[in-house]
């Protein structure tokens, strides 16, 4: 959910809360909120009409937005040919990228997540790994980016727009006993 939509949801929730409390107080005859506001004069009547119109408008926007697909991603890469269409699943792209990444040394706990853009039909990859061994981390990560991009574009013939690499620190296994010398 983007920031503008969050703002409107929060504003909608706040105004709905205040109006709901006012309606509950009015119905239970604890305090006649709307009668008090209407007794102040015509300008306050229009303020109430404006608040209720705003609530109706935001409700309509949220209702329509609930049916829109929020992600600009699709589940498979599609290429049209003169005979038909070729589809490559996200799982195939991720497993091919994983096979390519495993050919490099100094990496463990490889995790790959792919995103296929609906608009440009291009693939972006997020690769997370834990380094080990004497290899320099940034050099390894750069080699990983180049290898995975080249292999995906040559083997699967998919357009790779971005390969982001995240290096995470290895967590010591808490179940193993630490040996003190």
CATH architecture of the largest domain: 2-Layer Sandwich
Count of DSSP strands: 6
Helix content: 40-55%
Cα separation of the termini: 52 Å
- The oligomerization state is single chain
Low-confidence stretches: none
Biggest sheet layout: 4 strands, mixed
Number of distinct helices:
5
CATH topology of the largest domain: Alpha-Beta Plaits
Strand order of the largest sheet: 1-4-5-6
User: Can you tell me the number of structural domains?
Assistant: 2
Q: Which range does the strand content fall in?
A: 15-25%
* Overall pLDDT: 82
Shape: elongated
Rg over CA atoms? 28 Å
- Assigned CATH class of the largest domain: Alpha Beta
Succession of helices and strands: HHHEEEHEEHE
Main structural class: alpha+beta
State the CATH superfamily name of the largest domain: Cation efflux protein, cytoplasmic domain
Keywords:
Alpha-Beta Plaits, alpha+beta, four-stranded mixed sheet, two-stranded antiparallel ribbon, 181 residues, 50% helix
Topology:
Blueprint: H1 3-27, H2 33-39, H3 42-67, E1 73-74, E2 76-80, E3 85-89, H4 90-101, E4 107-117, E5 123-131, H5 137-156, E6 160-167
